[in-house]
Design goal:
two-stranded antiparallel ribbon; 1% strand; binds phenylalanine; Hydantoin permease; 447 residues; 77% helix; mainly alpha
């Protein structure tokens, strides 16, 4: 077997994992979900789930990946006996990566299109109505969003074909911190808009009567989506982590950074939305109309707008890379394709489904199933079914199928790290996380 690559440093692991985690899930999907599910109530549930279930699940994926040094399918095969059914979880993960990548690149394409628009100054002097029209005409244009989507996929395939250390790791290290800085600047601006306090109230004051099974499963799905867990992306990245690295602290760092960016996105978007009179439930258009409006109100807005969309493209790219990497790792190791071939095959396969997701935004598009656009359908089934089920099986695997000694061996780097807190993490992985995921999952099935 060929030599597998590793991440070069601890910082590299954190940044690459953060690169996977931070993306449209934080800046685009999180405000959409919070807006649709009662604002503050959603935020509280989200925080609890991301920290209490997300972290142990992320660590579980690292354990499986590093122990097996393999892609998700191979990982479950290597860690079990021949003929075991566990590799099915790996197949589901790779399938899930494929479906997510298909609809994710729709919005990824928009970010590229919006970068172009901001360079061309399309938002200069525009009012809200005009910016909203721009959004709908862009997303339902017959070919622009398709061109952008395919370009984005090609870019992703290019980086993935180059490998782990020189592609994924190098860029993530510089760009992730820059994203954070820009977001803080935007936050300050948004908070000083008139009427900002209404938005803050919506986002921060929880109305607990709004919490029901649907909000719980949405928060669970959102946290899994946002943290890139429950489908094998982090099993794959875990397989590149070296034996000396402290996976627990890396995972905690990533979860905190991801949560911070999601909250910042809310603090930027909701005050601005209220200030401009945009409904918090506005969904897809929330990020793509409120943000250009905020930039309109700023000195140097043209410049900030450009930088912001550039960073959004990059944050999105580090996520699409991690999704394609799941498919590529599986194709190279299971089917013995070369990395370049695997990247091309993976991207082309994704393009076929992805194009349908993009076309489903056209007005009057027939690509609707059971009242949902094809895009929504892919988003819905991956976040609400594939990822929770994948996550459930992953914690069950580490907690019950692997030997405790093996799991603790990974957690403590063969006894060189203190066991104390890691025993507690193991306890959560074994008992609390599976129970919580199962309860939330069932609570939505019964309504
Ligand atoms: N976590 C990414 C985001 O928030 C999306 C993603 C999901 C990436 C699953 C990889 C795997 O944008």
């Amino acid at each position: 077997m060929k030599q597998r690559e590793n991440f070069g440093s601890k910082l590299g692991i954190i940044m690459a994992t953060a690169g996977s985690a931070l993306g449209l899930g934080n800046i685009y999907r999180f405000p959409c979900e919070a807006g649709a599910n009662g604002g503050g109530a959603f935020l509280i549930v989200y925080l609890v789930i991301a920290l209490a279930i997300g972290t142990p699940l992320m660590i579980s994926e690292f354990i499986i990946g590093r122990r097996s040094r393999s892609n998700p399918i191979g990982a479950f095969r290597i860690l079990t006996r021949q003929g075991s059914a566990w590799p099915i979880v790996g197949y589901l993960g790779v399938g899930c990566a494929f479906l997510i990548l298909a609809f994710y690149t729709t919005v990824a394409g928009w970010t590229l299109g919006y970068l172009g628009k901001s360079i061309a100054g399309h938002f200069n002097g525009q009012d809200l109505a005009q910016i909203q029209v721009q959004f709908s005409s862009f997303t339902s244009h017959p070919w622009w969003p398709l061109v952008c989507q395919l370009a984005f996929l090609a870019l992703t395939a290019f980086v993935v074909a180059r490998g782990v250390k020189n592609g994924i790791e190098k860029y993530s290290k510089i760009l992730m911190p820059l994203l954070l800085v820009i977001m803080v600047v935007l936050c300050v601006k948004s908070l000083t808009l008139s009427g900002a306090s209404e938005g803050l109230k919506f986002f921060f004051s929880p109305d607990f009567s709004k919490i029901n099974g649907r909000v719980l499963i949405s928060a669970l799905g959102q946290s899994f989506f946002s943290l890139s867990i429950g489908m094998g992306a982090l099993i794959t990245y875990g397989s590149y982590i070296s034996k000396q690295d402290n996976m627990t602290s890396s995972a905690i760092g990533v979860v905190l950074a991801d949560t911070l960016v999601a909250v910042l996105a809310g603090v930027i978007i909701f005050p601005a939305a209220f200030s401009f009179g945009i409904q918090p439930e506005a969904g897809a258009s929330l990020a793509f109309t409120t943000l250009p409006m905020v930039f309109q109100q700023m000195t140097g807005g043209y410049f900030f707008c450009l930088i912001f969309f550039l960073l959004l493209v990059i944050a999105t790219l580090t996520s699409t890379i991690s999704l394609l990497e799941v498919i590529v790792a599986a194709l190279t190791e299971e089917m013995h394709l070369s990395r370049t071939k695997a990247a091309i095959v993976g991207a082309l396969g994704t393009a076929v489904i992805g194009v349908l997701a993009t076309l489903s935004f056209r007005t009057g598009s027939p690509l609707h199933i059971a009242g949902r656009s094809f895009f929504d359908l892919l988003d819905h089934i991956t976040a609400l079914y594939f990822m929770p089920l994948g996550g459930l099986f992953i914690v069950l695997f580490v907690g019950w199928r692997m030997k405790r000694a093996d799991a603790m061996d990974e957690l403590t780097n063969s006894g060189t790290l203190k066991a104390g807190i890691r025993k507690a993490i193991y306890f959560i992985i074994r008992y609390i996380a599976p129970l919580a995921i199962a309860v939330i999952f069932i609570s939505q099935l019964v309504g």
